[in-house]
Amino acid sequence: RVSDERLAPGWSAYQRRIHSKTWDVTRLMKEGGNAIGATLCDGWYAGYVAYGLFTGQEGLVPGLEGRSYYGISPALRVQLEIERADGSVETIVSDTSWKTSTGPILETDILMGESYDARKEMPDWSSPGFDDSSWEHAVVKTGTDSCVEPHPGPPVRPVMEIPAKTVTERKPGVFVFDLGQNISGVVRLKVKGKAGDKVTIRHAEMLHKDGNLSTENLRCARAVDTYILRGDPEGETWQPEFTYHGFQYVELTGFPGKPDNGAVTGVVIHSDTPFHGSFECDDPMLNRLYQNIVWTQRANFFEMPTDCPQRDERMGWTGDAQIYVRAATFNADIASFYTKWLRDLNDDQWDYGAYPPYAPRPFSRPNEHHAAGWMDAGVICPWTIWQVYGDTRVIREHWRKMKDFMEWRAKRDPELKGAEDDCGFGDWLSIGEVKTPIPFIDLAYHAYCARLMVEMADAIGETKDAAKYRKRWREVRAKFAARYVRTDGTLKIGNQTACAMALFYGLVPDDRRAGAAEQLAGLIRDNGNLMTTGFLGTRPLLPALSENGHHDLAGTLMRQ
Fold first, then answer.
1. Top CATH class, 157-270
2. pTM
3. Are 418 and 439 in contact (CB under 8 A)?
4. How far apart, in whole angstroms, are the C-alpha atoms of residue 516 and residue 56?
5. Could you write out the DSSP letters of every residue in 174-238?
6. pLDDT digit string, tens, across residues 200-242
7. Which has the closest alpha carbon to 187: 123, 237, 139, 120?
């Protein structure tokens, strides 16, 4: 094969941009005849994606929910360039002379899983001399006018393997394996049996108390792979190619005999962002916490920064992406990963200027157009990538789109009161009776993004824009303080999120910061040194404490 990459060329806003992949295949060329073979799957383009099935979103096929949002069937364009020693170049392209057929893959879907019948394998099908007389000619796909450009991010590929630690027979013929680590990827199966034997592989992150798989959290994602044996007396090894799952536990049924631990190996798959960061201290709990963070990043940096690797979602939620981007840079080189995803975000930006709650955006629900703290990823993420890697190209590439967003924001809230949004996420998953109003969050992020725009405008020499956004930052900050900050510095919204956001984003006047910091510390102590923050409030919580003299409390909170 030309590469160990998986699910190439990835997910994008296919209606605007399709990515290509280029490989050097010199090592694969042989004297005499050569052949090119390719296997296509529905993938993100035509398969089940996101929570479309769960929420009843119809695709391009009338009456069919959950899939085919971009197209109904996949297509392939191949160009082989042969550079000869004399400098001449020969180009071979795919056309209707190419032949197509079905093969041993009976079904494959990113969310649902893969079914493979090894009895249908065709040895040497991609080699010269293979008899393809019964195959059909390829047809030309029409109606595609998207731009085609090289994939700018790291490839998705297998990065490591994890052997099963234990296997338990839960009931006759049902075997549960424990990898000892939650991963994103697939199972490599080793099995020996008769032709036609069918092994079913189920995946789960948790077990019920009785030791059986807990799959309720998967919702509509089937996450089941099946393998039908060809009956090789030497044994068979198989792993799916066009799906992935989030799991720690594996259930086998239909396995011939009783498997040992070696029957199952976890193959970890994700975007291959180089991991260079490390952390270790004398607290075992913090060390374990850090490892959990790294594994979570591995599992969720899969072509885009996703929310989860297991259920029927796996979407590039913008709130998740902006909240975690700075932490991610400590662990791995994510510059090209975010370069790719930010283009997805720009491609799916609404025409009126707001950034969507997720990108790529395969569908649009009536109440999912923009959300405070989510849409701001379009400004926060480019700023963060520039801050970490020192490359202003990310600012220049997205500057016009960021300006469109900021202009829309100014028009929708001319009195600077903070605005409601149609998603209504707020400080998602926060705890406690005192909720943070969405207008508060919106105004805080409006101010913060204006401040970041000042810094970015200065960095790329856009002096007029810098002056405009500096004025905006001062105005919004003043309005925020007048509306939400008392004269003693305490916040009128009495919860941890409000205090943390106001402090972290620089919205409390300097001479009143001590009051806000004491209020935050008191709220935490009164809650038994436990946090009540959600998605948006957790990010600024510990820095807001540490930057205002409460290091010990931040440390205590981190260890809870």
1. mainly beta
2. 0.95
3. yes
4. 45
5. EEEEEEEEEEEEEEEEEE---TT-EEEEEEESEE-TTSSEE-GGGTT---EEEEE----TT-EEE
6. 999 999 999 999 999 999 999 999 999 999 999 999 999 999 9
7. 237
